Amino acid sequence: MISRVGIIGAGSMGTALAQRISSRAEEVILYGRKQEVVNSINDERCNPDYFPGLLLNPNIRARLIAGNHGLEDCQAVLIAVPSSEVRSIVHAISHDLANKVIITVSKGLEYPSLKTMSEIIFEESNNPNIVCISGPNFADEIAYGHIAGATIGAADPSLSTMLSDLFGGFILDFSDDLRAVELCGVLKNVYAIGAGMWDSVYGNYNEHYTFLNMCYKEMCRFLREISSDREIFTKFCCFGDFNLTANVDKSRNRTLGLMVGKNIIKTPYLEPGVTFEGSKSVEGIIELGARHGIDMPIATLISDVLNGRSSIRNTVETLIRGPPRRTSRRVVRAG
Ligand SMILES: NC(=O)C1=CN([C@@H]2O[C@H](COP(=O)(O)OP(=O)(O)OC[C@H]3O[C@@H](n4cnc5c(N)ncnc54)[C@H](O)[C@@H]3O)[C@@H](O)[C@H]2O)C=CC1
Ligand SMILES: O=C(CO)COP(=O)(O)O
Reduced to 3 DSSP states, what percent helix, strand and coil does the chain have, rounded to the nearest 5? Predict the structure, then answer.
């Protein structure tokens, strides 16, 4: 059993994973930003900001990230913050990360560098022991102990074996293409926004699954080009997470698409405090595709709608009939 795991980020996923793995580690330390949340976890065993009704297991303790005290004694450090924060956090704690396994769950892409979280973590820490865990995993369901599958992505398969016990509460599959596992999480968020947009206008089942299938084809085309893992399409990080996020209204990314489609919010939209990873990574994934020679018409249309350059109906017309063609108009004169 791992003796001590540090989790950076006391938000939904950080807290949920703390609860889930706390039966498989002697101690879990959640590093948060707010003193009142840290106090509440230590005194009341409760994170009131994210899971007010959940009694946390007694071996979960909290500390302020500012001091990162005790991190040096952790065997594994899990990073569960929005992707935009990962570089600065890892930079700040890099001296405490030597010889540890670093686990990332953030589903984003840095822009404009187009780097995944593991690439950023390696750059900032120089520690190659990096693992990603990704799958159809809504935080609340993880926290409350429901069945969940996940893919462990690790370039070094011995790291996957080491972490199988810590994540033994999940049904696991594995990939040694760490970057591809991470990119599945980025791609599915973008298509979940698209699914929300599409469903806001076209709600029939045939319409819904036709669009989903078109998105999944584009996602698989991307993965086929960049991944050495020929089985990735059937893994939890790919098929499962794509379907979960694109289909279920609990997803923030799908909800963003629905709200944009229904004109409830104006785009481009940035809501402070809500983690919408897909809206931040859509430009990046299109550019990354272009770098590998992958054309991504659906992601491009999603970006156009999200940034107010097109409407859903125009987008759908383009998808069904192809881009509008310029036709020469004959002027018919009366008389
Ligand atoms: N919520 C979910 O169901 C899942 C989330 N993820 C991924 O996990 C990542 C985090 O997402 P959530 O936990 O849902 O977000 P969240 O918005 O619920 O929580 C993020 C937490 O990070 C903290 N934070 C932000 N910047 C920080 C900094 N500089 N230093 C310390 N703490 C900082 C915030 O205070 C907040 O507590 C995202 O990339 C998301 O895609 C992955 C799987 C499932
Ligand atoms: O990644 C997730 C589930 O696997 C959570 O998705 P959202 O960020 O869209 O809520």
Answer: 50, 15, 35
